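To whoever picks this up:

The parser on our side crashed when reading a file containing two proteins. I've narrowed it down to the boundary between the first structure block and the second sequence. Both blocks are reproduced below exactly, byte for byte. First block:
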Amino acid sequence: MAGTDLKKVEDFKNRLLEEAEKLVHTVFPQKIVELNELHQSETLSRSRMPEVHSKLNIPIPEPLVVINSEMPERKKRKVDEDGEVNSVQGSRVLALPDGLAPCNKHLVDIINILKPKVCLMIDHINTLKMWIQLLIPRIEDGNNFGVSIQEDTLAELRQVESETGAYLDQISRYFITRAKLISKVAKYPHVEDYRRSVSEIDEKEFLNLRLTCAELRNTYLSLYDLIMKNKEKIKKPRNSNAETLY
């Protein structure tokens, strides 16, 4: 059983090494071209900025006319299950006419295109990290210049992985922030600044998504360039110099 497990581990290691080679030579150039075409396409064109704005389905109600000069009652009365009346603090929130405040469809479509590409890049980087880790030789004195190149490349991959993961956080923060602003619009429909803030955050997210696409392309390109320039040292960090001693 132990021999079978060792063979499976060795097979997995060989498949990973082959996959990493394919990533660098084939997949990375494809992704560079693909992301560059997407960045320059109509989908992410700056000319689409006016289309990004979504119309809020929250109407502006007629202003209330207070006839009685007395201050309106600030407390609502609530009857609990036992029939007792309790005074509770609160303010009126307008019901949405359609029962739903929809997301910005234009931005959701772009996110649905970019998000899988971000997740895929994280997988690619993880594979390359494991590839280089497996190529690092055992620790010895001297002749460690190639090993230092491997370690520097690993550090760059870890940094890129962290930055790429931040793009996913950016998407979730956008939805959370927009939801809070929509809630403000529903609660204070007469305040135009809240409505304008929704349009502003949509524009900002469009530009962020456009920048994300460019950063993904640039990251693939920089990693491809880094690995290809140092591929010899990454794959064979130590060369035998025994023959030069004679």
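<<boundary where parser fails>>
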Amino acid sequence: MNYSNKRIVVVGLGRSGVATARFLTHRGARVTVTDRKGADALADSVAALAGLNLTLKLGGHDPTDFETADLVVLSPGVPHIQPVLEPAWANGTPVIGEMELAAANITEPVIAVTGTNGKTTTTELLGQMLKNSGKTVFVGGNIGTPLTDYADGLHGKADVVVAETSSFQLDTIVDFRPSTAVMLNITDDHLDRYASFEAYAESKWRIFENQHPTDAAIFSALDATVTAMLAKHPPKARRQMFSDQAVVNGAQILKDKILLFAEGRPVGSYALDQTALIGPHNRENIAAACLAAREQGATDSGIQQTIDTFKGLAHRLEPVGTVRGIRFVNDSKATNVDAVKRALECFDRPVVLIMGGLNKKGDFSRLKSLVHHRVKTLVAMGQAKDEIITALAGDPGHGILEADSMEQAVQKAFDAAVDGDTVLLSPACASFDMFTSYAQRGERFRQIVERMR
């Protein structure tokens, strides 16, 4: 599309909104950026746009902007169904997301990774496998650096673009077509934004929507919702699955290795004995990354090197210290129930679990069995504290404790633990009741532990 002199409204002035506004003004568009937040709350974003020829309308949306727009571009955090967009819909004005805008201006092959849990780890693994194979790679999307920054030429030219992709981004695609699409899992999340779990699953599945038979679709055979969606909406692309059972095309996950097959023939084997990533869910992430990396020309040595040296990411089952024989693990990124389930499955010693925050309509009772068998004491905090206590009452053998702050939660967990136990922060909730992000929450946990040493 020729953006010159087009009236384009960018909705949302977060990181993606800044990248979108910059990209479009560089191409001569008449850009209006609008956000419900005021200038004070968006000071950093406003500063990032200094010197650009655009209009800022902050503190609310002006309906007339949507009536006269040639194009509306939504940031991922902006719901795609809201009344303010009605004038654009009524006029037949295209309403797309930042990722759709970027992808339309990227000619390199794109690997898109989605799933409720494991997206970032898999995306980073995949990017490193390709880099260790001699490829020039851009890694971005929902992981932090907007794809629009790459499309704008801010990161040079890559051989391959690897994009973490959220359901929010997939809500607003039109023609987005990844050469390789990866679906890790689909479990309850963001039910505060979607009308139902089914609607959330349908959104996730859109990652395969525009693929051709020459593209690759990689998915889990271990996730019930993924297999149900596969039967309901079979992708047109070539399919590869990862499973703990034998596969014809894809990856078989064993405890100590990943075996790859094509048409039933073995085509690759990667050892897991040196990996720092623990738990069955991380073996799934590694398997998915192996398959996607090979699709874009990664070498066996590059893949194995990455498996052996990848240290994991902050706030994802991250050890942050040991005090009096008690290990502290930061899993602040576990913002939904399934992520906590996956974390607890990694421990065979007693766990003191810290949960709580802002509930995204997750069903905490789904943790009852695991909490009963693996958690000795539960510390509940945050806005969802009472819901957690009600859902899990009676299951931790040593009971449930309440805390009003992270400091109090860590101290109570420490007091309840003994030598050999693990204190695990795995909240099953968003952070926004007490913190600005899951990262800030995890850092606070880390700082408290460091002071205890």
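After patching the parser it read the second block fine. The chain is about 35% helix and 20% strand. The chain has three domains: 7-93, 100-309, 318-452.
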